[in-house]
Amino acid sequence: MHKNKRHLNVLLAKPRGFCAGVERAIQIVEKSLKKYGAPVYVRHEIVHNTNVVNDLKKKGAVFVEELDEIPETKQPIIFSAHGVPKIVPENAKNRNLFHIDATCPLVSKVHIEAEKLYRNDFEIILIGHQGHPEVIGTTGQLPNGKIKLIETIKDAELYKAKNPDKLSYITQTTLSVDDTEEIVKCLKKRYPNIIGPHKEDICYATTNRQNVVKKLSPHVDMLFVVGSKNSSNSQRLVEVGIKSGCKESYLIEDENEIKWDLLGKIENLAITAGASAPEKIVQKIIETLSNKFDVNLKSYDHINEDVFFKLPVEFNE
Question: How far apart are CA 236 and CA 153, in angstroms?
Answer without folding.
Answer: 16
